[in-house]
Amino acid sequence: MKSASFGQVIKHGLFTWLQTYPTPEMTRALYARLRDEVLVATMLTLTVQDVQESVAQWADRPQNALYEASTRRGAWTRTQLLILGQRWLCGDKTADIAEMLGRSAGSVRAKRKQLGLPPRIRLSKIQAETILAEKRSAIPADPAVVLTWEQASLLPPEARRGRTWLVRNSLSRLTLTGHKGGDKVRWHEAANIEIAYRHFAFQNPREIARDFLISESALKSQSCWEQLPPRRGAKMPWFILARAEHYIGEHHYVRRECLCKSGCFFWTTRKGGDRVSRRYRRSIAATHGIAA
Predict the structure, then answer these.
(1) Residue-level pLDDT at 107
(2) 29 CB contacts (<8 Å, ≥6 apart)?
(3) Residue 286 pLDDT exceeds 80
(4) Domain contains 265
(5) How far is Cα 27 from Cα 29, in angstroms, rounded to an integer?
(6) Phi, psi dihedral angles at 278 (to 5 degrees)
(7) Rounded to the nearest 5°, which phi and psi values hold at 93?
């Protein structure tokens, strides 16, 4: 049995699995096949910096380029690979991933194995409880230590107060910090922008909340302050940054600073969009009882 630090415990109904972590060797092998840092990082739920560090000492490494799918029939597209890797590392079942991709479960298993994505090890109930207990006891007590997403997810909301943790499926090392006196978090510009990008990528709010380890109501409140527009279309569990960039460019959205409140940014359309933020309007209405 490998060390508990070597994987994440995932439960599916009556069965429990140990999802092993990506190793530098896996990262280099996947990069050698795909030659795309962003694709590899997204598939292994790592940051681009993690991938770059894994291949930094590789003297003859292939040059980074945008992955292009083969022209043969049934070839896996870049988007399908992104979904496969991200959802596999997030713990989704093979059958569910196959349904997302419109492929057979056997095809998903074969591709996962061919690419060398981290395997899963079947656990007994006693093994799972032992590993989870070991993981919880190994969580650093020092509030200055930044927790991994997994470590933070093992703590109840009250234990995350005053702690800082990494956001899951973020291509940068994005972190959030909980307030010491409650279950709210301290929002900062990088987190606000990432929430917006996930919104424009049509990621399911439930999945965004899970990746950030916040409640859906907190996410809805923050999205309101950011003035994110309503989304019309299917909401997906995965997050693909390129999809957000395409949507923002296609619909001419920009992040603009409020004319009346310095340091207050919000999203609006480039032409004909708001110049005064909703936050400022509501603060004026609350203070003076009038509409701004």
Answers:
(1) 96
(2) 116
(3) no
(4) no
(5) 5
(6) -65, -35
(7) -75, 150
β-strand partners of 3: none
CB 260 within 8 A of CB 276: yes
CA distance 284 to 287: 5
Between strands 15-20 and 120-123, the pairing is antiparallel
For residue 234, give its domain range.
Answer: 140-251
What pTM, to 2 d.p., does this model score?
0.91
Q: Are residues 113 and 146 in the same domain?
A: no
Same structural domain, 221 and 164:
yes
Q: Is the pLDDT of residue 2 over 50?
A: no
108 and 179 share a domain? no
Residue 216: pLDDT band with limits 50, 70, 90:
very high
Number of domains in the chain: 2
How confident is the model over 43-99, as pLDDT tens digits? 999 999 999 999 998 888 889 999 988 888 889 999 999 999 999 999 999 999 999
Given the structure tokens 């310095």, which residue do they identify? Answer: 262
Distance of alpha carbon 209 from alpha carbon 195, whole angstroms: 10
Q: Are 194 and 242 in contact (CB under 8 A)?
A: no
State both tokens at 38.
Answer: 């962003």
How far is the CA of 186 from the CAs of 182, 197, 252, 265, 283, in angstroms? 11, 19, 29, 16, 19
Assess whether 146 and 96 both reside in one domain. Answer: no
